Amino acid sequence: MRRCFVCAAAMIGPSDRTLSYPGGARRAFRLACNACGVLLAHGAAPEACRAHLARSLAGPVFAPDPEAPYGLDLYTLRSAATRWRLGVRPRDAAGRAELRHPHGTRAADAELFALEAADGRPVSLGLLCRPADRDAVLASLPAQAGWTDDVAILIDGPARAAEPVPVAGFAAGAVRVAARPLDGDFAAQRDTLQGLARHGWMLQLDADEALGPATGRLLPALAALAEAEAVVSIGLARANRVDGVLSDVFPDVQYRLNRTHLVYAGRVHERPVLDRGWPGSLIALHGGIEHRLSAAHVRARSRRYEALDPGRGRLEEEAALLRPYAD
């Protein structure tokens, strides 16, 4: 198994973790996904694991199975369940503690609920773009009106305060456009965009990225799920399509749905700063971000980023981005 059957990351590696099960059973796992944390038995077949997990998520309660070819703690189950558009609730105080201090040694045991039917938190949409992208970004917004009522667009250009722009499907004043010079500092640009949000959560996208409306509609429920367990940052899978071909750099998780009080770090390849580190985040698998690139842009991007922030340009990523996706 090269890729994880839960999150699709090609990050399967050795593990020394064990899980305890109801009734006293304990089981050691020698493989794990270093992205989502699922544990795997040697020789586990992805299709069999996926089918077993789907059956286990079909009822109101997820009960751990010590005979399954995989294992999940509660932190990993929370992410895995989102692939089936489900949320999880801990069944006791120990479960709540495990969500805040992963990865636990107890096999996941939780209540399940449909995210579509859950209460949500309002989420703002923020977009970064260049002046040439402004009209295309505005034209893409009506498709997102079903899940957000607050949109901020920040253009790379001479500083200009936010001004309302009418867009079909949105109330007057809901969409605003501001400008600020990027000046080679992506973290500062994202921080400024965060500051334009009117809600406590914001999803940020770039002009060459897109989010399907069906994916967007679950974001308020995911924000509420996160708040219930002190999570402040949610990562979404990003599919990099280079000249239309899915790249092997997948799922390329981007932590773009964040509490608006967070700040970003890194002039390039910026990420939100989390006081509790990665336990304050989760990965959502119900959908993802589509990222459109050209091969020429890929070849130039890493060198440009390296010039902006020496040592952080990820020059090695160029070859991987140009390689087509493989299981």
Structure description:
This protein has 327 residues and is of the alpha+beta class. It contains nine helices and 21 strands. The chain has helices spanning 46-56, 74-82, 93-100, 134-140, 186-194, 213-216, 219-228, 295-308, 317-322; strands at residues 12-14, 18-20, 26-28, 31-33, 39-40, 61-62, 70-71, 86-90, 110-114, 123-129, 151-156, 160-164, 175-180, 201-206, 209-211, 233-242, 245-246, 254-259, 264-265, 271-272, 281-293. The strands form five sheets. Strands 10, 11, 12, 13, 14, 15, 16, 17, 18 and 21 form a ten-stranded mixed β-sheet that branches. Strands 1-4-5-7 form a four-stranded antiparallel β-sheet, with no helix packed on it. It has a three-stranded antiparallel β-sheet with strand order 6-9-8. The chain is globular and about 65 Å long. The N and C termini lie close together (8 Å). The mean pLDDT is 95.
Which helices and strands appear, and what pairs or packs with what?
Layout: E1 12-14, E2 18-20, E3 26-28, E4 31-33, E5 39-40, H1 46-56, E6 61-62, E7 70-71, H2 74-82, E8 86-90, H3 93-100, E9 110-114, E10 123-129, H4 134-140, E11 151-156, E12 160-164, E13 175-180, H5 186-194, E14 201-206, E15 209-211, H6 213-216, H7 219-228, E16 233-242, E17 245-246, E18 254-259, E19 264-265, E20 271-272, E21 281-293, H8 295-308, H9 317-322
Parallel strand pairs: 10-11, 10-14, 11-13, 16-21
Antiparallel strand pairs: 1-4, 2-3, 4-5, 5-7, 6-9, 8-9, 12-13, 14-18, 15-21, 16-17, 16-18, 19-20
